[in-house]
Amino acid sequence: MTDEIKRRVMYWIIICLLTLALAASFWEGFNRLQEKNRTIDSLKTVQERVVEDRDRYKRLANSNTEGLSNAEEREVLWATRAVLSETNNPREMLLIANVIRNRVDLGYRGRETAKEVILDPYQFSAFNPGREMRWRYINMEPKHVSSERWEEAWTAARYAMTAPREVLPFDNPCVNHFVHPGGLAGTPNWMYEMEQVRLGSIQRPEIVFFRQNRTEVCQTEMSTLAAPTPPR
Fold it and tell me: What one-character DSSP code corresponds to residue 122?
């Protein structure tokens, strides 16, 4: 093979390699563009979903019962009554309702609905047997309190009793106790078996929340908790 032929062969080999490299570069660029377009489409879909969810939540916020089954409505009603009996602070309302939800989901002390949890003797003081205010709160309806207080309590109770567990402030169902320290004559024995939950700026001295962490009861019950117990 002459030198001229060799040069021509090498020339075409180089041309072919450059062509393949250029084609590969174009193909990679095309794939990146396609992936970018898919990402943009995906983000648009997510954005549309967020807008739809936001509009739906706004609509639900303007309705006390829209989207609730009869059973869910009963759960929210009882949680609202308990919340109103414990605090006037909107920030605390959600946390108290969350404790009620945690007890329902765990079947704490054998109680499996919000009503059973709240009427469980000596658990929620306003509902204790013999208390004058017991029947007031048991029968409480919107007409018995200001519309603002009822709306705040209902909104907090609705969120706590119906939202997915992972978005609750206390997503661990073992957070199922709270006290008003100022109203305690002494220290209940159960407080020695629990850990106080730190809430930062949300917490006030008037109310303290606790997580069961030194007893086997909560952990045993948690192991069987696959999903929130549906309201009855």
Answer: T
